[in-house]
Amino acid sequence: MTGFSFAIAARDGAARTGTIVTPHGPIRTPAFMPVGTQATVKGMYMDQVKALGADVILGNTYHLMLRPGAERIAALGGLHRFGGWSGPILTDSGGFQVMSLAKLRKLTETGVTFASHIDGSRYELTPERSVAIQGLLGADIQMQLDECVALPNDRATIEKAMQLSLRWAERSQRAFAAQPPGRALFGIVQGGDQPDLRVDSAKALSAMDFPGYSIGGLAVGEPQEVMLAMIEAVMPHLPDARPHYLMGVGTPDDLLAAIARGIDMFDCVMPTRNGRHGQAFSRFGRVNFRNARHADDPRPLDETSSCPAARDYSRAYLHHLVRTEEMLGSMLITWINLAYYQDLMAGAREAIAAGRFADYAAEVRANWDRGDIQPWSA
Amino acid sequence: MTGFSFAIAARDGAARTGTIVTPHGPIRTPAFMPVGTQATVKGMYMDQVKALGADVILGNTYHLMLRPGAERIAALGGLHRFGGWSGPILTDSGGFQVMSLAKLRKLTETGVTFASHIDGSRYELTPERSVAIQGLLGADIQMQLDECVALPNDRATIEKAMQLSLRWAERSQRAFAAQPPGRALFGIVQGGDQPDLRVDSAKALSAMDFPGYSIGGLAVGEPQEVMLAMIEAVMPHLPDARPHYLMGVGTPDDLLAAIARGIDMFDCVMPTRNGRHGQAFSRFGRVNFRNARHADDPRPLDETSSCPAARDYSRAYLHHLVRTEEMLGSMLITWINLAYYQDLMAGAREAIAAGRFADYAAEVRANWDRGDIQPWSA
Fold first, then answer.
1. CB A336 within 8 A of CB A235
2. What residues form DSSP beta bridges with B10?
3. How many Cβ atoms from other residues are within 10 Å of residue B197's Cβ?
4. Does the beta-carbon distance from B327 to A67 stay under 8 Å?
5. Is A92 a catalytic residue?
6. Do B317 and A43 touch (CB under 8 A)?
7. CA distance B89 to B106
8. Rounded to an integer, what distance in angstroms lies between the CA atom of residue B289 and that of residue B281?
9. CB of B327 less than 8 A from some CB of A
């Protein structure tokens, strides 16, 4: 079994491209991780996900601890085997979804108790239990339990959550030491929209020497410039040689902006969730297939796409599938979107290696600004 | 373009195996047609459907005339191109679903007017319009408009509907004459559960010389023995050399029983619909993946299946996907079910050719009776 490592192969300004090595194989960075919440990337076969060039997927500790349960997945051979994904898996700590989904939450220094949003049954999640669950799942990259607050919020609340998250980082690290070698636990920078609190968090975590660093608590409703300002505040205080993971972000534009500021890893439900609602990401920006303008359009979404779903079906057909709420509509547009995100990352890696990332980002954005191909007329 | 033909290659008792030739290729019989209601077989990619060995799929005139509309599909190149299926397509007449789904129905000698179940807009379906719609869709095999009554029902109602269906058969045939050569229009035997009415219908249709004959108005709630008795009553009065299509049927057992009585073609929503509800068809009979007994079971459904979904995923995982209502659960179990139906038909064709259909049916049924593999225990 290979150990965890990160090698930066090329730099272009603050942007970097490289390779993270995990027990289940390499991750080319910058990397976008499709979200496989409940041991499935919604509407996709895992071999499709792999074929798109995704190296790593994300699993959600909160959902998996409720159903089917971490001990059950462990008994069935772990999450890789359970869900049929042989590549690297990253799991979150469960904390974010306890805050957004669970009921009757009670947060103490020890951890958080809550009632399942499914059946109301009671659970406790502590830093130790979160790491234990992620270990049972067999995740290659694990997250410390943290407290993530909504934004905007008052400074005292943000600071308290950040300080608690630091104490939980230490407890997580101690608990994680019991796991098989090769896996990695990331610390998570908190501090809301307060640059100095972000810096305090980054410094304290850096002193704990994690193999990778996440920036959490963003993409919770704040404007993009706030998110980018927080990244800029934090970056000088995180170890340069370790992977930097911006959690839960974001739009294609967010990704380009964050890569330019030194982020290596991303996850987001946007390509899968928006795909289920008929919205495609493409070279030409976002295309809403619910819109009636597609009803008679015989053209594919993008005949130059790497994705068969964007090449082999008419816009009229995709529109029809969305309007009739057919599963295939969700399947095809999710496929299109994940392909777009993966291709965006592949392009970024190539551009960074060639020292032309700024040009690449400008070209991609110019295509979005030009908008969708002119409407077809019969 | 090839003309429509049917050649019987082998017989075994009343069962037959052969090939129907259509403008879009051959159909090996006995054939099961996956239902592609709205220009998609729910939860399946068309290349998966093809790979299962399905030669022909069914489209529903009622649904397609409402969304996206027959003229629109024609302008987009026809249903084959629209839905990405290059093989033969059979369409129903729309009559059955007008009766089961539409509102404010008014039936006259001319046809039926109704309000869409989607938005209440008004439509008229006549024998001529039904054939015109099926022609616009480009269906290789089309159905006459008929009146299908629920069972049980009073004899006068059944007889009146049967006689109306005969008059509509004549009008359908005249209207169909305008279509490109090579396509086929089937007459539909009606007569409810009244053997003599069924015989009258079959004789009258036979005199009209259709290239194929459907038996309609069954699988509407009557016991299997009634259905089989109707097939037995009708068969001696239908041209032996023409394909016989039992509409909307049925369970795997129905299929075996009907093949033994000379039926060549089937369609049914059962494998797809039950698949979406977590019920799999297998060598061992039906398996309900909603059942908690699968929660810890690491075994695949059937490692000898031709279908990757039955071999490559644990029962525990399929159970998890059904319980969490993940799309992939519907996708995998639909795939399993359509594979099972296609394999059942392939086995029937082989057995008939080898003169051992009765043995084949007995073996298949013995496996069902033996039931699912013994429950796994940890």
1. no
2. B17
3. 21
4. no
5. yes
6. no
7. 29
8. 11
9. yes
Q: What is the pTM of this model?
A: 0.97
pLDDT of residue A3: 80
A262 vs A244: CA distance, rounded Å: 7
User: Given this model, what pLDDT does residue A165 score?
Assistant: 98
pLDDT at A88 over 80: yes
Active site annotation includes A209: no
Q: Annotated catalytic residue: which of B92, B146, B200, B372?
A: B92
Here the tokens at position B325 are 């209502």
B239-277, pLDDT tens digit by residue?
999 999 999 999 999 999 999 999 999 999 999 999 999
- Side chain identity, residue B305: S
> Please, what are the domains in chain B?
5-268 (3.20.20.105), 275-370 (no CATH)
Q: How far apart are CA A141 and CA B247, in angstroms?
A: 54
First-to-last C-alpha distance (Å) of chain B: 59
Q: Is B240 on the interface with A (CB under 8 A)?
A: no
CB contact under 8 A, A326 and B67: no
Q: Cβ neighbours of residue A280 under 8 Å, at least 6 residues apart?
A: A274, A286, A287, A288, A289, A301, A310, A318, A333, A336, A337, A340
Q: CA of B73: how far to CAs of A297, B55, B135, B172, in Å?
A: 11, 22, 11, 21
- B154: phi then psi, degrees, rounded to nearest 5: -80, 150
Chain-chain contact of B42 with A68 (C-beta, under 8 angstroms): no
pLDDT higher than 70, residue A2: no
Distances (CA, A) of B367 to A206, A263, A344, B282, B372: 63, 57, 51, 9, 9
The first and second tokens of residue B255, run together, are 């299929």
Q: Is B57 on the interface with A (CB under 8 A)?
A: no
Burial class (CB in 10 A: 0-12, 13-18, 19+), A7: exposed
- What is the distance in angstroms between the Cα of B80 and the nearest Cα belonging to chain A? 12
- Tell me if chain B has a CB within 8 Å of the CB of A321: yes
A267-319 residue pLDDT tens? 999 999 999 999 999 999 999 999 999 999 999 999 999 999 999 999 999 99
Catalytic position from the list A267, A297, A302, A343: A267
Q: Which amino acid is at A301?
A: L
Report the residue of chain B nearest A37, measured CA to CA.
B326
According to DSSP, residue A35 is labeled B
Low-confidence ranges of chain B (pLDDT < 70): 1-2, 373-378
pLDDT in tens, B206-247: 999 999 999 999 998 899 999 999 999 999 999 999 999 999
